[in-house]
Amino acid sequence: MSKNELEKLWQSKSLGIEHLPYREKVEVLQNTFTKAFEDKIDINNNGKSVVYPQATKYNHYFSDGLYVREMFCEKNYFGFTVIHNTANPLFLMKGKVAFASEDGVEELTAPTFILTKPGTKRVCYWLEDSVIVTVHPNPDGLTDLDKIEEKMFSCNWDQYDNNDIKQDVWEMMEHKEYQKKIKNEEDK
Predict the structure, then answer these.
(1) Fewer beta carbons within 10 Å, N or C terminal of the chain?
(2) Span 126-144, pLDDT tens digits
């Protein structure tokens, strides 16, 4: 599968999803794949808990106010993320991955990063062996993964809509002095 094939899947007329709203589209895709590959799908607690797929390996890091999640994923893995309750940066440190999300289909090549908005659930296809690092707010200093996951992720849209964490999305601020320096160098 390539980014092109993921785009075709995302706009699939045979599944009747090309005009569906984002939430419905991603759920139809996930249900279709779950039924078609039932014996190969990693599901935890009947879809009510975060899954750590067999094709991935994770390391977890904790610091005052932060939780960092490092994921190693094999080439050709196809999967769906949980729904993110909070905004967080995602850093692709190594590899290449195609994502389908509310913003459409994009292909990321390391090194790069994207900003995840609350309510994001992605359809992912790893084009190469990859390493992804995400950084999450952890103001309560939690180290119990079940408690962290319960707070930061939702496994279905009802759970997301009823969580008490509501957060604004990203806002970029330019470093004005740095921008002035760049402008002055360009003007020379």
Answers:
(1) C
(2) 999 999 999 998 989 999 9
